[in-house]
Amino acid sequence: MNIGIIGPGAIGLLFYFFLSRKVKDLILLDKDKRRALLLRNKGLTVVKNSKSYKINVNITAQPQELEDRELFLICVKSYDTLEVAKTIKSISRKNKDYFVLSLQNGLGNLEVLSEILGEEKVLGGVTNMGSTLLSPGVIKFAGEGKTIIGSLKKKTVPVLREIRSVFNSCDIPTSITSDLEGAIWSKLLINIAINPLTSILRVKNGELLNNPHSSLLMQMVLNEAHRITKRKRIKLLYNDPQTKLEAVCRATSENISSMLQDILRGKKTEIDYLNGAIYKLGESLKIPTPLNFIFFKLVKSLEETSLKRVDSFQDEKL
Length: 318
Prior knowledge:
Elements (H helix, E strand, L loop, with lengths): L2 E4 L3 H10 L6 E4 L3 H10 L1 E5 L2 E5 L3 E2 L10 E4 L6 H11 L7 E4 L6 H9 L4 E6 L2 E6 L2 E6 L3 E5 L6 H12 L4 E4 L2 H22 L5 H4 L1 H20 L9 H11 L6 H7 L10 H11 L4 H15 L14
Parallel strand pairs: 1-2, 1-6, 2-5, 3-10, 6-7, 7-8, 11-12
Antiparallel strand pairs: 3-4, 8-11, 9-10
């Protein structure tokens, strides 16, 4: 299977690192020509347990070089999904035998991809592999985790087995689910509790449990989204969301959430597709989600005031 990874962020680079072990025909697409040139020249460095591993990267900023891909692995931010879908459609006019696999966070990505490419082409998944982007071409492997993939059609299409085989052979623990919606929402509930609060408070994941105020806020925002899953009869991968949330916080206690990484870099976040999406869905279902709305607006405010923030203060001498 030849694979094209779209997006040289933390997850895209991590999957490139693992897949390069066995996948001979592997290429990474970056929309930024300067960054692509940088990665091509200096390679990819992965930091794991105080050790560094460096590999060469087959990377391009020319989408046409991916026109023969059998699988597109989508690892871009959710706000770039529409542009990526249009790019894939444009370069795949002669290639009808391809699939796209989205490993993105949040809601709405699969719907956008399906609208542009056709539902029969779209696969989805969630990954709990941890990765922190330290600088362009340098990532920290923040922890192993399972990857779950599936189809919107709620059945196992043959290509899923092939992808699972390839991923597992590259040390990416992967399983197939017949309930992709449940897998996506299971990760979403954790993300909407941890990501915005770590970004607002500027703390690592584990600190949220150490403070009774932030711990309570996590529980409350999670409960709002959980009420939506109950109304929609979505089956989660765990029985007790609160217990799962605490376990993830502890397991990733030293991690800097992807949203906080974006805020610290002055970049746009995916809050619209997390708490923003929960708020809008709650409105349509007439389920109140006030905390999700507040978290949504606070993070949007952080995005828009990144250059005006006061980071220190010194008393004036009288």
